[in-house]
Known about the structure:
The complex is a heterotrimer.
Chain A: E1 5-8, H1 12-21, E2 25-28, H2 34-39, E3 47-50, E4 59-61, E5 67-70, H3 75-80, H4 82-87, H5 89-97, H6 101-106, H7 109-113, H8 120-123, H9 165-171, E6 175-179, E7 185-189, E8 212-218, E9 225-231, E10 242-248, E11 254-259, H10 269-272, H11 279-286, H12 298-315
Chain B: E1 2-3, H1 27-31, E2 49-55, E3 61-67, H2 69-73, E4 77-82, E5 104-105, E6 111-117, H3 120-127, E7 131-136, H4 143-146, E8 151-152, E9 158-160, H5 163-169, E10 172-180, E11 192-198, E12 201-206, H6 211-222, E13 229-232, H7 248-260, E14 264-267, H8 270-276, E15 283-291, E16 297-308, E17 329-338, H9 352-370, H10 374-380, E18 385-386, E19 389-393, H11 399-410, E20 422-424, E21 427-439, E22 445-451, E23 457-460, H12 470-482, E24 489-492, H13 509-532, E25 540-542, E26 545-548, E27 551-554, E28 564-572, H14 575-578, E29 582-594, E30 600-610, H15 617-636, E31 642-643, E32 648-649, E33 668-672, H16 696-708, H17 719-722
Parallel strand pairs in B: 1-28, 2-14, 12-13, 16-17, 23-24, 30-33
Antiparallel strand pairs in B: 2-6, 3-5, 3-7, 4-6, 8-17, 9-17, 10-15, 11-12, 11-14, 15-16, 18-19, 20-21, 21-29, 22-23, 22-28, 25-26, 26-27, 29-30, 31-32
Helix pairs in contact in B: 9-16, 12-13, 15-16
Chain C: E1 21-25, H1 30-38, E2 46-53, E3 56-63, H2 68-75, E4 94-97, E5 100-103, E6 116-118, H3 120-123, H4 131-138, H5 148-163, H6 182-188, H7 199-214
Parallel strand pairs in C: 2-6
Antiparallel strand pairs in C: 2-3, 4-5, 4-6
Helix pairs in contact in C: 4-7
GO molecular function, one term (chain A): xanthine dehydrogenase activity
Protein name (chain A): Xanthine dehydrogenase YagS FAD-binding subunit
Enzyme class (chain A): oxidoreductase
Amino acid sequence: MKAFTYERAGSPAEAAAIVGRTQGARFIAGGTNLLDLMKLQIETPTHLVDVNHLGLDRIEATPEGGLRIGALVRNTDLAADKRVRKDYALLSRALVAGASGQLRNKATTAGNLLQRTRCPYFYDTNQPCNKRKPGSGCAAIGGINRSMAVIGASDACIATHPSDMAIAMRALDAVVETVRADGATRAIPIAEFHTLPGDTPNVENTLAAGELITAVTLPKPIGGTHIYHKVRDRASYAFALVSVGAILQKDGSGRVAFGGVAHKPWRVEAAEAALAQGAKAATALAFAGAKPTEQNKFKLVLAERTLAAAIAEARA
Amino acid sequence: MKFTTPAGTNPIDQGKIVGKPTPRIDGPLKTSGGARYAYEHNEAVKNPAYGYVVGSAIAKGRISAIDLRDAKAAPGVLAIITADNAGKLTKGSFNTAMLLGGPEIEHYHQAVAVVVAETFEQARAAAALVRVDYAREKGAYDLAASVDSAVKAGGNNAKVGDFDGAFAAAPVQFDQRYTTPDHAHAMMEPHASIAAWDGDKLQIWTANQMIAWGRGDVAKTLGIPKENVRLISPFIGGGFGGKLFVRADAILAALGAKAAGRPVKVALPRPLMFNNTTHRPATIQRIRIGAGRDGKISAIAHEEWCGDLPGGGGENSVAQTRLLYAGANRLIGQKLAVLNLPEANAMRAPGEAPGMMALEIAMDELAEKLGIDPIELRVINDTQVDPEKPERPFSQRRLIECMRTGADKFGWAKRNPKPGQVRDGRWLVGIGMAAAFRNNINMKSAARVRLDGSGIVTVETDMTDIGTGTYTIVAQTAAEMMGVPLDKVKVKLGDSSFPVSAGSGGQWGANSATAGVYAACVKLREAVAQKLGFNSDDAVFAGGKVRAGKRSVPLADAAKAGEIVAEDVMEYGDLGRKFQQSTFGAHFVEVGVDIATAEIRIRRMLAVCAAGRILNPVSARSQVIGAMTMGAGAALMEELVVDKRFGFFVNHDLAGYEVPVHADIPHQEVIFLEETDPTTSPMKAKGVGELGICGVGAAVANAIHNATGVRVRDYPVTLDKLLEGMPEFA
Amino acid sequence: MHGPGEFELSRRGILVGGAASVAMTAAPPIAEAQEAASAGAGAPVLARVTLKVNGKPHTLELDTRTTLLDALREHLQFTGTKKGCDHGQCGACTVIVDGRRINSCLSLAVMHEGDSVTTIEGLGTAEKLHPMQAAFVKHDGYQCGYCTPGQICSAVAVLDEIRAGIPSHVTGDVAGKPAMSAEEIRERMSGNICRCGAYSNIVEAISEVAARRKA
């Protein structure tokens, strides 16, 4: 870990301004991913701006009947919030499927969205990785890639996004609110937040330099049965091989987003129209054009069967 | 004392303390954070510097240049050790590769430098500035592709009768291949050491299972007299074979401390451990069994292909097949290929652990093929003698009783032998079993026992407690022998200044080390009796007193004039050759397999064990459930995944190398059969710490087959290997 | 695209096999390492922080890089808190900060100014064990002991979390109240790895304390 200076910002706008103007500066919130990567010098900030004490830890009702979740709301608190448990159970379920109790007590809403991939080659600084070191190559292609993406990947990167929470946020049509270094604020629909790797896998979202997430808002509840199925070898404390976040309505319609399959939460709205016809039809559309490897082609079968289980559960 | 004839009645048979369920005497220290592990001797070592290890970025080749300028200039750096300035280092007797590589690189993450700095943070940062240029050479990393280059190796190549002929003539023939992957010990405490020099004397607080081996190899590696080395290892945060040998932390701490002129602490960073240290090697196993329609085996063959660095050894996964089942015609063989992966070595029950994973699936498959109940097939092929040497009986062999007891307890009779028939909600449910088998080994072991004027008995031995419960069983042994309550015994372990013990490995520790304590106590009893004017043969040691006839004297009186010290070593004659001493058991497992996702979850586990006298049922049970847990991991998730292009284990941290967590493990039951084995030692005990892992993986795999009808022969059994064979789900 | 074992040397590929010459640094890409060196390799930045550990305030002058875990172990001699992986993957470093359990390895000490930290030493002593510590001894809920302080700190917090109604992955109805069950305990304790495999006993120890406190 490289040496760094540290300060506590006084306000979100001030934090954004500092990070925007200071080369090598980064925000730190829960720190559960950033510090992990700093120890390996995958992340090498020279200045850390602590955003933990800026009052961004509240969950409030919005005038539209939704919820505004402060960026610093801890995963545990978000999962335990009464309104979330009642009206956005998918979010609560996705959160508690992730990490461990200790990590959820620290990890924040914004930080969870910004988690970096768990690709083992990304984590091993001896190995080439276009995400960690653009232009160095991708060791996962042709290497060990059972856990990697089956769709939306590129010749430069086949990593997945590791978040469970983000799958729920994507299915719930969340909106990410930010403040930029110049003080301007904006709202980014979650669908436009995470990016595919393309030629620049080092870029993982549409935030500008110094742009700070201040909140994530949820539109008003849409009812339905909320299901989050996370499939993994180990029963807990493991990243998803495949996960399915679904909100299914009585009439057979619904929404579904998949985790563990792509560089971002994978939701194909057009495929949701086929949900009433069953999992096979919906996953065929959602994964049209998938390019799995020999090691991870099982994920396509698994995604279909897991969605089928979710549909069966909703009907039961 | 030399143990040459089967034990008669002795004070241990009183069973007042030995054999009683006893909470660990080190429990309060461990649960309150007071137990000091290797890196934590802060009060003994003031002002230490910190070492951070740099691992090789290539698997095989040479260092062409190292540039230390930036690292040396980094703040707080005191010294940097590389092969260039370390002086002459000799490979330890128990190491396959050098602990400090360079210029030759033998495996990925082999240490190439240690950076010593004022603080841990500075050492870590400076280590990242060490710039190494490598010339990469071609290596062999793929076991399956190296099978043809493998040569006969190891101690398990045997032929009895005419296997080929008998197999060809057998009415039922079974021939299958199985694979087990590389496994990591993944003990919770990383390899760690603090080294301090006092002139030419070196003291290392370290995490090591085998103090005397370690002391010898530190001396050999550094080229200094053994007498100048002291190893201290009172608490060890898990070993499982991974801490049998001196590793880079100890050597680099010693070299760093010498160069920095002050004590140095080194812990291996977790992401470095998997490739830097040892692991259980992958195996390919072929099992052929010829049997009659009645299930009687006429021919059995078990062959292993394994790989290791040049000079290494194989896994011996065929070992149990020499002894477990009858059959007149036998073929056992092992072949070893050179692989340039990290060093393969012992991990909990080397040989039997992966060997039973294969053999006990084979028996399940054979039973299915024959239409015979899997337990009955094993009963039919039970043998009370060494099948290779029928004149040599087992000292004890109650495998059948283990299986029958377990079957009753687990409800085996309710199992549907037809796979894929039992459903519980979204779960397909299956039950499987496997035999458990692991040989008993006795090792020479010494101890020193002191009696002081207040009646306190202190035991000193370099024996280690790696979670096995040594502190407690040693105290129980001394208390039983000297006739004092447990709280009058103090136990000091893990210090090379104490008498040399068996150490912890190969499930030999408990019986061997307590037998050494027994021997020392016999001597102490003689000295006490003499001091108090008793004829030592008549003296009874009980209730803190020594008694003979009508005379009774407090034990403490013997040491009134001064401490009495006795030391002895237990050595063994040929009983282990006359009798085959083994431990037996039976594993029963119930699993659920998600009908949609094929996720596998264990629902129930039972082990029945026959392993001689159980010295402390509390810690022995823990050893067994722990081994069952590790075996469940091997069955369901554990695999060091090899990148065959670059030659390293890719998943080299605890997120990537998954071991079982709480949610994977249900309530576990263990039953010990009442047993004593007088041929093993005066303790009449045997090992039990590894028995629990032998067979359990196959029981899990067999249960999965019973649940789904899918037979997976390549461990770990993960859902992706089941999906294709699962029923339609839409 | 790429055959096994052979890569073309290109922007995206890597040269593998043969006697190729490769240059690598131990951790960072070369460019970064050189940049760091030219920036003086980052002289340590010191910061003053006051932590209240087990009820007593301690003021330290620490390198900003110091984790809460290393502050406890290396600077304050609270070695009961263990370093198992240093990456949030094992739970051995679990401590309770302001009433919540966290991985102390993934938290900077300077971020805990004024915080109350409870370590294993703060729960009880060998002479006067906390009920959870005593239950671990009674049920043999440990073997080597290295994960044990983290397991115990976690266990104490887990019971509070269940009582507070925080849902878990195995809670049937997330909107309802979680049960004080073995299944809930197992799921919630899953961030504490025990390689010795004492899980079955640990769950019994925690269940006993849970039942006692319910009564």
